[in-house]
Amino acid sequence: MSESHLRTLTLNCWGLKYVSKHRTERIAAIATVLAASDYDIITLQEVWVHGDYEHIRASVSNRLPYSKFFYSAALGAGLAVFSRFPIIGAAINPYSLNGSPIEVIQGDWFVGKAAASVLVAHPVLGQVQVFNTHLFAPGGDSGPLHLQAHRLVNAWEFAKLARQAAEAGRYVIAAGDFNSSPTSLPMSVIRDHADLTDAWAASHPEIPPATSGLPTPMDAVHSFGITADSPLNSFSAGKHLESVARKFHGKRLDYIFFRQPSSPPASNKTPILTCTDTRVVFTDLVPGTNFSFSDHFGLEATFTISLPEGGDVLNPENTYIPAPAEPRSPNFVLTSVPSPAPVPPRALSPDSITDILQALMAAYRFSLYRSRSQLTVFAVCIMLLLVILVGSAWLPGPGANPLVIFITIFLAWLATTFLYVGFVYGRWEVNALTNVIEELEIYRGSLQHWQNHERAR
């Protein structure tokens, strides 16, 4: 494809070892499709087996020779990026909140959900920072506030990183599985605080009306960008879904965002990145099988690179590259970032800030309550261990020893676990929530100051 266009894809591959159904066959099929595609940048989520990443990398290496697999926490972030353009920097920023270690079934804490990014050198745009992420999953948009708060913290931290990249003079492309509907608070944070544009919304300004009432499953995919819990997906068909997903034939959870540099030079030679088309892809079954490529569909976006006043963007004399093609420091995320404006071009509304703070405060109170409860369990276990220790002298006979040993081991494990989750993790969660609450209070004060200044003018 011409350098005046940029094609991107994001796909959640559902690649958890031993758990995901037909993983080996699906990953091989995904790699085959990607090898025959013309994408310039691909972001994948839930690629938790390094061998699967190696297989995909070998398949796409002819067109996408540059790639990065990201590691995080105990089981890895599951994030990978493939690029046609040279990768000149990479970083991963684990989110401060990812559920609790005691919630083993949910698993988010063990995989270390994170914001991964690569810095690529584009021949026309200069530096482009590509983000790939997978936000905290449990809770949905209507679940308990203490679970929604974790995803809100993820969204806030992700938005700060994307905003920093733009303020450093880079174009930003941000993609992934955000586990949030378009109208949810986390998406408001990402769109408004980072000033990111939703590629799907930009290329679908007018949603065609359904022929009669609610859309069909196919209309939901092609007109509304549904990527998860679709009845057209073999892994969602027959699955127990929440009411919203049942009503609208799925949910839109996968996104591609973009934005220009924060303060480009006042020049009609600075390239403009515009989304001209987005489509939901990987909607068919794997050829020769009765199952889908993943439990999510993929999302692709096509961008056009142009000049504000027209002209040939490929002519070096006409184009100003706003950032150097080489990084100034290996720590590219926070290097040479100019002081941000008090308020970005788009800002969170006061109502949104209030709703976010209410959710975070509810999570803060729940965390304190849960921490105290877990420490109480720890104290009870210690008391029972002391009782067993003292009472062991009056055991009726050697036949009781195995049972006492088993109970002692169990209580010792329970005490250690609840000491960790109640004190160590409990303090971690409280401190993380406190940090974000204070940042939002500062942000709200800055917004009010700016509004008062504007009214005074």
From TrEMBL:
This is DNase I-like protein. Belongs to the neutral sphingomyelinase family. The keyword Transmembrane applies. Signal peptide: none annotated. It comes from Wolfiporia cocos (strain MD-104). The chain crosses the membrane at residues 69-92, 375-397, 403-425. Pathway: Lipid metabolism; sphingolipid metabolism; Sphingolipid metabolism. Keywords: Hydrolase, Lipid metabolism, Magnesium, Membrane, Metal-binding, Sphingolipid metabolism, Transmembrane, Transmembrane helix. Its main location: membrane. One of its GO terms (cellular component) is membrane. It comes from the Eukaryota. It is found in: Membrane. Residues 9-296 form the Endonuclease/exonuclease/phosphatase domain.
